Amino acid sequence: MFDSEAAGCIEAMASAVRAESAAIGARLKAVARLYAQRCRDYEGRQHWAGDIFDAVAAEVSAAQNISRARAGVQVRMAVSLFERLPRVAEVFAAGDIDYRALRIIIARTDNVDDEVIGSLDEALAERVGRWNRLSHNALRDRIDKWVAMVDPAGERVPPEVADQRYLDIDPHPTAAGMALIGGALHAMDAAALQARITAIAATVCDEDPRTTAQRRADACGAIGRWETSLACQCPDTQCPNRSVRDGAAQIVLHLLAEQSTLTSSSTAPGYLPGFGVQPAETVRSAARGAKLTPVRLPATAPEPGYRASAPLTDFLRWRDLTCRWPGCDAPVARCDLDHTQPWPVGLTHPSGLKHYCRAHHLIKTFYTGPLGWTDHQRPDGTIIVTAPTGHTYTTDATGGLLFPTLARPTAPLTTTSSGAEPTASPHRGAMMPKRRTTRDQDRRARIDRERRHRLDINAEHERQHQAWLAATYQPPPF
Q: Are 67 and 375 in contact, with CB atoms under 8 Å apart?
């Protein structure tokens, strides 16, 4: 007797997996169709700094409320899938493979020549349904084997390890006030950093209550502040190691918090750009000995010039905190201050200013007209963005959500008294920064470079094989 209830769970699970693949397939197909449409609408803009790819990514990120980077990944995948691997796309939409397998297939076939990609697409579509259970490495190897048979130069070249060095510092996913650090460095650089951390961690006395691991972690903060020692936390008030030895430079960090948090009358958290919300105790600890500067609310009257004053710029940075484009979370440190209505019709005032990252600033400025973007700003900083399709998206100021004082409505503005907004010049696009090469040309150059490298690797393998045969060959006796 079979367990019918459990059987129903299994069937629902399998059905959901297939439905998930079908839904993702439909989404990627829509992205690919949008890209093809915009290539026709925006013909001739491939050399623009904000090119067609960026324009489509902007629409995708707004529609799905995701970051520009994630939207860009979808655009690249969608175009590659439906232009180069339509049979694999059908298998995916049928639910025979999952998203993980699809990403591996697209990545490993990217260098295959356009003349033979069709035959590889057919071969993979017949087999990948049986490979879905394989591990990442096993699936990669199966795909690489078929790539090598169809197009030996199209097999992806392993990246140089040294070229993959990086250092990431990110907010801790679960612990507010903490961060995670990881990366890959040159061995000599890592050795120097290791020695520096060890030396600083050893500047406290033996009674310091922290573990060695904790002192090493704290030493990283000392390095960031250009300090050459840690402040000992032992109970001896006369300990000579209680003071910190400063280095030659001063590091400035900006932390936003309510006054009530600093006076301990509130437990409201603060905000550290790049690392998010910080607990009240972290804010109060950081404030000891720090320079405290109040964020001044803006004046009612607009400012006379194009550039915002330092106090107004400071207010807008804290009010916005990130790019105001739908889905974008680029920090204001990497953003431009944008007049919602072009200056001088649009006044220099918080009701008419907000931040856009450079990519979205270019999209808003140069993709105008019937197939362009428009935006409207409310006095509380809310932005309503209208896409070329007529869809509207609303974004609130992140700082205003965290600290309501920053979202208080400022004076409503429309235009200056000098008249209506001027009509955009038909030659506006001439002012768009240009690329030296298009995105497609860059991709083609990268593929050609990797294909030449793969041919060199294959030739060297063959040379070594022939040398081995010559060294081990024993002629038959006569």
A: no
The answer to whether residue 326 is domain-embedded is yes
Asked which of 128, 158, 188 is the last residue of a domain, the reply is 158
CA dihedral 180, 185, 191, 192 (to 10 degrees): -80
**Distance between CA atoms of 303 and 309, rounded to whole angstroms?**
8
- Of the candidates 358, 340, 357, 360, the one whose C-alpha atom is nearest the C-alpha of residue 348 is 340
Judge whether 126 lies within some domain: yes
237 and 129 within one domain: no
95 CB contacts (<8 Å, ≥6 apart)?
17, 18, 19, 20, 21, 22
Q: Do 132 and 177 fall within a single domain?
A: no
For tokens 């072009």, the residue is: 342
Half-sphere exposure of 472 (CA within 13 A, CB side): 6
283-297, 322-336, 419-433, 463-477: least confidently modelled range? 419-433
Closest CA to 102 of 63, 59, 73: 73
Task: Give the pLDDT confidence of 425-463 residue by residue, as tens digits.
Answer: 556 667 889 999 999 999 999 999 999 999 999 999 889
- 284 and 330 housed in the same domain: no
Q: Which domain holds residue 269?
A: 257-294
Closest CA to 109 of 134, 60, 145, 74: 145
- Residues 110-143: tens digit of each pLDDT: 999 999 999 999 999 999 999 999 999 999 999 9
Could you tell me the CA-to-CA distances from 233 to 183, 213, 217, 331, 442 in Å, in that order? 30, 15, 15, 35, 55
Q: Are residues 280 and 398 in the same domain?
A: no
Q: What angle do CA 461, 463, 467 make, to 5 degrees?
A: 115
